[in-house]
Amino acid sequence: MNTFLIWLNSFGSPEKFHRVALRFEPWLLALAVICGAAALYLGLVKAPADYLQGESARIMYIHIPAAWMSLFIYGFMAAAGFCALVWHFKVAELMAMAAAPIGAGFTAVTLITGSLWGRPTWGTYWVWDARLTSELVLLFLYFGVIGLYNAIEDQRKGARAASLLALIGLINLPVIHFSVNWWNTLHQGNSINLFAGKSSIHESMLWPLILMAFATKFWFGASLLARTRAALLEFEAGKEWAQTALFGPRRPQA
Amino acid sequence: MNPVRRRRLVALSIGLLGLGIAAGFVVYALRENLQHFVSPSDIAAGKAPQGHRFRLGGVVLEGSVQRSPTSLEVEFIVTDRFKQIPVHFSGILPDLFREGQSVVATGTLEGERRFLAEEVLAKHDENYMPAEVADAIAKAKAQKDAAR
Q1: Which CATH superfamily hosts domain B36-147?
Q2: Do A164 and B19 touch, CB atoms closer than 8 A?
Q3: Does the ipTM surpass 0.90?
């Protein structure tokens, strides 16, 4: 536990975080682009159409990975928020707050693509079933976190207050995931069970999904690091390291 | 760990645990209310709300769809493989509507034994596969049935 905290603490140094983030960002971004392009090609061109839904099923190659990310990022945000609340790490606070808009974006993509798929498949853009409603609540939770953070004058206090809200909203995650098992919903059950080992999606349709899941994870990583870095630079703009990082090492005065 | 942080850690953990338990109770209590639709068996057991709108969910019984040749009116039977109920609908059905496919219909009960639908939605299952695979499965099933 202690060595872990010391390791975690070393990232708590804004200067070191900035240096490490700057090195990883381009790689994560490149991986995201490569995986994403491959997934789109496999999903939209190579994969067969569904036996019942036809071509419209292809929207799942965007919808499902985006839905996973909407949950994953919320979990990440809550975990970072927990660290921020207990240890008051500045980097954890900024990371949690940097993750919120990205998660809100993925949630919006999930809701919009799902709605567009629902129209031809179900016959409606929207129903108030447990899965759709709980995902909409997730979007509002993200909005709440972003709004609370921006509403409080003191940035660090705002981040911690918003982190607490994020933690409270955590109970929505199992509700979203299990909603299709607990209640009768119009939304179908989970097609992919990583732990049970058996999925009800044919293998030829599974690969683009998995690739896209990796692409979105990499993109989240790159985006998170960039946003956190920018927030750190803004917050510590007056400090020596930030000046050096922005304008290069200070020349000795002639 | 210094005492202040330990106190925050413990307080936050207990808070979250309490919240989780409370949420569990709420979800458990709302089990019935959060159902999106009721099944034909529920209606037979008298669990369907009388006199106002609700949603009926089930499978369209094979061979039960009767379309009117002159209008958009359609009659079909919805079953959950235990009980059945006839459904009347007038309007355009979704593309995925077919016999053997799940549907969710919104409407009211007419008398005891007929459901008047105002809206019919197709429910998709979690299976995704190419058409060739679906054909192969259907063929294998037919052979198995023939051998029996």
Answers
A1: Nucleic acid-binding proteins (2.40.50.140)
A2: no
A3: no
Suggest the residue from A52, A64, A210 to mutate for an interface test with chain B (most B CBs closer than 10 A).
Answer: A52
The Cα of B70 is separated from the nearest Cα of chain A by a number of Å equal to 23
- Residues of B with Cβ-Cβ distance to A5 under 8 angstroms: 1
**CA pair distance B34, B29, nearest whole angstrom:** 10
- Rounded to two decimals, the pTM is 0.87
The structural domains of chain B, with segments of one domain joined by +, span: 1-34, 36-147
Contacts of A60 (CB under 8 A, 6+ apart): A117, A209, B128
* Contact residues, chain B, for A184 at CB < 8 Å: 35-39, 57
Question: How many Cβ atoms from other residues are within 10 Å of residue A197's Cβ?
Answer: 6
- Can you spell out the DSSP letters for chain B? --HHHHHHHHHHHHHHHHHHHHHHHHHHHTTTTT-S-B-HHHHHTT-SPSSS-EEEEEEEPTT--EE-SSSSEEEEEEE-SS-EEEEEEESPPPTT--TT-EEEEEEEEETTTEEEEEEEEEE--S-B-BHHHHHHHHHHHHHHHHH-
The 10s digit of each residue's pLDDT in B66-85 is: 998 888 899 999 998 888 99
- Angle of helix B3-29 versus helix A155-168 axis, rounded to 10: 40
Q: Verify whether the Cβ–Cβ distance B27 to A124 is below 8 Å.
A: no
Angle between helices A14-41 and A203-235 (to 10 degrees): 150
Evaluate the CA torsion angle A14, A17, A18, A19 in order and state its sign. positive
Cα(A81)–Cα(A96) distance, integer angstroms: 6
Q: What is the pLDDT of residues B9-57, one digit of tens each?
A: 898 999 899 998 988 888 888 777 777 788 888 888 887 777 788 889 9
Task: State how far the Cα of A25 lies from the Cα of B43, in Å rounded to an integer.
Answer: 58
Distance CA B62, CA B78 (A): 10
β partners of residue B73: B90
DSSP strand pairing (B73-79 vs B84-90)? antiparallel
Measured CA angle at A24 (ends A207, A251), to 5 deg: 160
Asked if B127 is an interface residue toward chain A (Cβ–Cβ < 8 A), one would say yes
User: Among all chains, which residue has been given the structure tokens 């058996």?
Assistant: A198
Domain ranges of chain A: 26-48+58-237
